[in-house]
Structure formats: structure tokens, C-alpha cells
Amino acid sequence: MEMERLHHVTAIVGHPQETYDFYTQVLGLHLIKKTVNFDDISTYHLYFADKYSEEGYTMTFFNWETDRCGRVGSGQVGHTAFKVGKGSLQNWKQQLENNDVEVKETERFNKPTLEFTDRHGLSLALVEDDNQKDAVISGFYGVEILSGRVEATRRHLVDQLGLTEIGESATHFYYEISGADKQVIAVYKSKVDRGFDGVGTVHHVAWQATDRDDLVDWQTTLFETGSQPTEVKDRNYFESIYYREPGFTIFEIATAGPGFQVDEDREALGKELKLPLQYEANREAIEANLTPIEGA
Ligand code: ZN
């Protein structure tokens, strides 16, 4: 069995208005779903993607309105990289700097990489996709894993998830996901201090399963190879399982469907607060507790 692509990345960030403004105005993404964290209904779960969510990538956020910062470290995703058009990196640098975002030029993803953080300290990156003409963000280029057990994570990516090692730099090992997008996982070579959850950290990265049968096959395979996946959870827009890879980062595997149009029309994506059936009865109280987002 082989993973073919990433499905979403979920991070913990701060004030929802700052998240909305940054991802729509600075990065040009669209809010395509406004709901709550199904495991903590006092916080938003905001989903950003391309306008109609047709590219199959989603960056999602739990908005904690506290100043409880996390610490980025082992057992977490380091940088989340988006892909942008060939030749667009310098324009992106300008765009970020015009919005008071400090940019660093590196080669973290084994190619020219722009590194920066969002308004809540979340580490992001932009990398050019040689096959893409439009400058806009069109999906994930890949993610960086800060492993607590580097060798075990490397083996897991290849032996269990079917990735191919494509090279290394002084600082990272690089793996390619088998699907058409050729997404890249960069495993940081050094062990860093253990990270902990809080504002400015990635909570988990999700891989895509084709359908429920495929998801259950993954669950079985993981179980048989010593990982401890959860039961299948209904996330309304997909079904998924969670587990910690051997280097402690939380991985989720999520089905491609039913998708974000299950409770909202294509043109209306992200316009209203959507709740799963089990929370509809409490809508008034849930809504009263959330900070309104202007423009959303
Ligand atoms: Zn998730």
C-alpha cells in the first residue's frame, strides 16, 4: 500500500480574525468551511483552500484565543510548505514583505524555499513547483517532520507508507509521496527537544485515503505493524483515523470524500457556521461563544 498525497494539515493558532485576514489577504487562500473543533466545541475549526476546494488540499486551524504558546519540537511538523508557480518566488517575497512578514530564503525543501511565519508564529514555507504556471498557492509542496526517533520515522515512511527516499542535504532526508503531486516529506536529521501543543504549532498532518475501505485497510496494516490507530471517526467532511508515527508526530489518514459540499453549496462554501448534527441543538450557545469574523 502506498500513500498518494497529503489531505490536510491542522495547526493551533490564535485569534480567528488574524488567521482569516492572513490566509485570505496575504496568501490568497479562501475560507471554505467555518465550523467548530468536534472534540472542543468552544473553539473554531477553520478550513482554508482554493475557492471551491477542488485542488484537494486544505489548511485547517483550531483557534485558541489564549496566549498559551506551544513549542515547536520533536514529535511535530516543523514547516508546512505550499507550492507556488515557477518563477514566482521573488514576487511572493515582495508580497510577504509588503504585509510586514519577515522572510528568510533557505533551501529547507532541497530547493529555493521562502520561510516565514503567520501572525501566530506558525512556521510556513513556499516552494516553486516547476510544472505550475500560476503564481498562486495550489496545494501542499510538502511538510517537514521533526522526529523524536529519526531512523524509525524514516523506516515508517518507506516501509509502511510507501514513500521513496529521493536524497538528502546536510540537514534533512527527503522523501517523495507516490502520487501525481510528488509531494515531499523532509525529515530533519537532528533530534530536537520534544515539542508541545499550543498556539503556533501544527497539531497533526493528514494523509489521504481513497475511500472507507482503503481507510480500514490502512487501519489494519498499521495495527499489524505495531502502530495504534484510533477507531474510524466521522469528521462530517471525511472519515479518519489517527495514530502517532514512531517518531511521535500525530498522523491522520482521511478519506477523500464526502467533501466540503456535503452541507453547503459550492458558491456558499465557508459563509456560515456549519455544525454536525449532534451539535445543532446547541447552535445558539455555541455561536454566542465564538468571536465573529469580519469579512467571512
Ligand atoms: Zn485532521
Describe, in plain words, how this protein is organized in 3D:
The protein has helices at 16-26, 89-98, 150-160, 212-224, 277-280, 283-288; strands at 6-13, 30-37, 40-49, 58-63, 76-85, 104-106, 113-117, 123-129, 139-146, 164-168, 172-176, 184-188, 201-209, 233-234, 238-244, 250-258. With 296 residues, the protein is of the alpha+beta class. The strands form two sheets. The protein has an eight-stranded mixed sheet. Strands 6-7-8-5-9-12-11-10 form an eight-stranded mixed sheet, with helices on one face. The longest helix has 13 residues, at 212-224. The protein starts with 5 loop residues before the first strand and ends in an 8-residue tail after the last helix. It binds zinc ion. Zinc ion is lined by residues 8, 10, 204, 206, 252.
Secondary structure elements and their pairing?
Elements (H helix, E strand, L loop, with lengths): L5 E8 L2 H11 L3 E8 L2 E10 L8 E6 L12 E10 L3 H10 L5 E3 L6 E5 L5 E7 L9 E8 L3 H11 L3 E5 L3 E5 L7 E5 L12 E9 L2 H13 L8 E2 L3 E7 L5 E9 L18 H4 L2 H6 L8
Parallel strand pairs: 1-4, 5-8, 9-12, 13-16
Antiparallel strand pairs: 1-13, 2-3, 3-4, 5-9, 6-7, 7-8, 10-11, 11-12, 14-15, 15-16
Bound molecules: zinc ion.
The site of zinc ion has 5 residues, from strand 1 and strand 13.
